[in-house]
Input
Amino acid sequence: MLMKTKFKKIFFIFFFLLLACFVGAVSASVDSSDNATNDLKFIAKEAKLNKNSLIQVQLLNSKNQTLENKTVHFQIYNKKSKKYQNIGKNITNSDGIAILSYKFKSYGRINVKSSVEGDNFEKSTKIFVPKAYLSIKNSYSKKKDGATLYSTIYNKGPKTTKFKIYYKFDDNFHFRSEPVKYKYTKPKAYIKGSKILKMKVSEKGKYLYVSGTIKKKGKIKIKWAFESGTDLLFIEPVVKSSSTKILGNNPLKIRITRFTPFPVEG
Output
């Protein structure tokens, strides 16, 4: 009887050990199949010109889990040869992230491609390398029945850049009609290391338009006064410069102080 009990215990221990080995083998098989790359995400999509910048990608499997110890190859598109060229490789860390330090020598939106060794998986993106960083600060001061707009544009570099700015009024805005002294003044600009190509008020008076060229560390200060027929108005500065990153550029909300009453009809 004692021998039978011992035999049963040994049998159950052996059975559970065998079952554990089987489950472990199945689990390892599942884990192995989940080691394939299902997605590749580019973490940073901006870099600085002629400075070491980090290109970072993260690998994920079909369960959205990160993949460690995967070799990732990095390529950049060469506009002259019209082909992708290898720029390096690295292995993913415990967070599934592979990092490569690279110095971009051309500006614009640069095509970058990453591929995973052994998984036949690749993905591309565009990394923005600004030609220049334009810092724009907008302010105003109140004046009789109107306001004066001030805007300072500063180029932090690293290159000279062109720009276009539309200082747009909201749809409800209109200039003061009667009585009126000047409607609006001719816009003025203080220039340092820059060149104003054009500065004018639109025909319908809905925006002030300024375009120009500004060198590294160059500065433009704009001043423009106007009389407003609208008590509360908004000015939205819209900048167009495809190769430049804009910093600041705050919109303005202006409440007009009335000094001169509107004429009474009849």
User: Anything to note?
Assistant: The domain at 39-129 is CATH 2.60.40.10 (Immunoglobulin-like).
